[in-house]
Amino acid sequence: DDADWDIALKSQLQNFANRTRTLSNNGRNESLWITSETVTHSPYGDDWDLLYLGSCANPPAPDNSPTFPGEAGQAHWVFPVNGGMSCLYGYAINARSARTLMGWLLDVRDPTDFAVSSYCGHFRCIAVWPELIGTHKPAGPQTKDSSIQSTDGGGFREKGVTRNVVHSAILDMLARFGPTELNGSV
């Protein structure tokens, strides 16, 4: 899959960091609010194991989840998760948790995205929805959309799309340079 993000990703990550820093999942699927004055070593705070920046199946956010504004009035929810996720378009893991996750993945036979979701059932994971990093579906035959799923009858997409991204970086790049300059064909 081709990952894509909004051209405003830097400011979205700053807003996400502000909300993540104030939200801490204490491992019992409860929210614990800490003050913005709390000193942390990471812009995202210190009390998390994995951050889901892009996923194709996010569970609904709890009613009391903090939000931040996105592009064109789109609101993003930030909330703790304990499973139920799929796809890994974008994620972050801290150094403390990397070793644990690698050991976890060595012992699981599920596809990686489901195994990571299962990991989140035991560790502190935080998600954002709509996602900050999504999957881009290019213009052209829809049979090329996925290497693991087949599309019945194919179909043709006139214009590329990225789900939940207002100003796609890929579409912006194509508009600036055109597809022929990018892939070297005429």
Report Rg: 18 Å
Mean pLDDT across every amino acid position: 80
H-E order:
EHEEEEEEHHEEEEEH
Give helix % range. 25-40%
The end-to-end span amounts to 25 Å
Model regions low in confidence, pLDDT < 50 over at least 5 residues:
25-34, 181-186
> Total number of helical segments?
4
Report strand order across the widest sheet.
Answer: 5-6-8-4-7
Which percent range describes the beta-strand content?
15-25%
Quaternary status: single chain
The major pleated sheet works out as: 5 strands, mixed
Based on secondary structure, the structural category is: alpha+beta
Q: How many β-strand stretches? A: 12
User: Quick one: overall form?
Assistant: globular
Describe this structure in words.
This protein has 186 residues and is α+β, with helices and mostly antiparallel strands. It has four helices and twelve strands, in the order βαββββββααβββββα. It has a five-stranded mixed β-sheet with strand order 5-6-8-4-7. The chain has a three-stranded antiparallel β-sheet with strand order 1-9-12, with helices on one face. The longest helix is centred in the last third of the chain and has 15 residues. The protein is globular. The two termini are 25 Å apart.
Features:
globular; 186 residues; 4 helices; 5-stranded mixed sheet; 3-stranded antiparallel sheet; alpha+beta; disordered C terminus; 26% helix
Brief write-up:
By secondary structure, the chain is α+β, with helices and mostly antiparallel strands. It contains four helices and twelve strands; from the N terminus they run βαββββββααβββββα. The protein has helices at residues 9-22, 95-106, 112-119, 169-183; strands at residues 2-5, 23-25, 31-33, 50-54, 67-69, 75-81, 90-93, 125-129, 133-137, 140-141, 156-157, 161-162.
